[in-house]
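INFO  loader      accepted 1 record
INFO  loader      residues=405
INFO  predictor   begin
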Amino acid sequence: MKNRKGGTFRRRLLIVFLVYIVANFLFNVLFFFLSVRYLQSIQDIPSSFNIWSRFNIREGLIKEEVNKDMKAANKEYLKALKNLSDQEQIAKYDEKSNDFIILPMKTLKSKNDLRFVGGYCDLLLRYALTHGNDQETEFIINQTLDIIKEFEGNPKVHDIGSYNLKNNALRTLASIMESQVDSGKFFKDEKKIYEKIEAYYINAVKLLIDKEHLQFEKDEFGVVPKNTMISDNLLSSLLDLSLFYIDSKKDINKSLSILLSVLRSLQFKEDKLLSLKSSSQDFKRESELNALKNEKIPLLKSNIAEILWSKKLFTDAIKFSQESCYESLISSKDNYNSAKISKNCFKNLYRMYEKLGDLENAKTFYEKYKEINIPYQNDARLKREKLRDVVLYHYFGNFGRILFP
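INFO  predictor   done
INFO  writer      dumping tokens
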């Protein structure tokens, strides 16, 4: 009897172990396909790229988009570029080299494969945008934009590569040029350089509104119409354009008009999200709402307050600044962006009251400013997100942790 019971227990244990092995195998297979699909949704990776290039690009995307480790991502993109040069017999792959050769125009045209060209241009831009050296970034972006211009010059070709990456590239060129102006590099030609910077920012915005089928108010470029929602990339692009108008003192009123219209757009989006009925995508809606209420809207109000103050509209400036302070304060204990916005707003407020001679309020807001501790980048550098968590959250929301603990 004892042997029979012992044998039954061992069989049951073996069955449980086998079920666990099979379930784990099936989960890993499912996770592999979901991961590839997720990364493909971020960046199209042409099948004509060799296996090592595709592997390097996926690794780069994980490090850039998931881990937020730009330096590590850049290394992976460099490997992919060297592998493609080797694939096309332009240069042998050299593991130790920190350089690569951009595929010649003749080689790209001979491929007769626009998906290959688009994917290659995207890879070049991702390499440039994750590079730490402005000079190298500027050179690679300009080389890539020349390739894109050459191919898009053909009436039969509509788009080469990701328009969002092209948008980021144009804004990066503008930002690099602004830094060069600040360093005094273009002191004699400052006016012409500012015109070039403005053109970069405007073209970056035009690229998005063309692709997203949006229109601005008549004769008011950058001013978002009522009851219109905008993408995050367009939001960032309009913020960059408005801040350029402020920093260059080119058109502060234009900047204010843009920011007020963007604020109206975000408030409209917030109302829309609040009115939606419950669904399986509630986790995404909550995430968007929190970002709007605690980060994006407070940031805009803070920028608007600074412009209003410069225009000597002190009462309105203080009103917008206070709203920004307290809206961002709600999640400032564990949210890096909210804490940074709130702390900066309280600093602005105490300085505003100090300049107005209201020392009592100035002291109150100074103490608030000192109380806020900025968390360490949302602990992003201490505890980087993992692909597994991001993919499961993307497809299953908070249920991902319950379904696959």
